[in-house]
Specification:
By secondary structure, the protein is an alpha/beta fold. It contains five helices and five strands. It has a five-stranded parallel β-sheet, sandwiched between helices. The relative contact order is 0.25.
């Protein structure tokens, strides 16, 4: 089995990692891709005068944020026997997670849900909702 686990270090994404470890039968022949996407605004040019946004996953600010997120996610997975790969990207989280799943030919995407109310989700959007609508494979949203 090939599985993508979306992570951002929040309690909900760590809960998704724990759920995955406890409920999916991922053995030594399974591949698990931990995907963290450093979010960049839709129109970064608007912020050009205010901040210097990173462009690459290897940029120091991204690594400083991503490394502890990946470490906590691996800890939440416990002693999983699967082959685990860290993927750190810079861009649009929902789109890049779905693209990663497509490239890796994933059988499943697992993601957490922050539990926003319907009105908050309408205004703020929802990465897990976007993933569910964009993905070509099944998506499991852990609450």
């Amino acid at each position: 089995m090939k599985c993508v686990l979306a992570t951002d270090g929040t309690e909900s994404s760590l809960k998704a990692a724990t759920w995955l470890a406890e409920n999916l039968r991922l053995d030594a022949g399974s591949d698990l891709y931990l995907v963290y996407v450093f979010p960049i605004p839709s129109h970064p040019e608007v912020y050009a005068e205010l901040v210097c946004l990173p462009k690459y996953a290897s940029d120091e600010p991204v690594k400083r944020i991503a490394d502890p997120i990946m470490k906590r996610t691996r800890e939440a997975l416990g002693d999983l026997e699967a082959n685990i790969y860290d993927i750190v990207l810079v861009g649009n989280p929902a789109r890049d997670i779905v693209e990663t799943a497509m490239v890796q030919k994933a059988d499943l995407i697992v993601t957490g849900n922050r539990g926003l109310s319907s009105s908050s989700e309408l205004c703020l959007g929802s990465t897990s909702n976007a993933i569910a609508h964009l993905a070509l494979c099944p998506v499991l949203i852990v609450r």
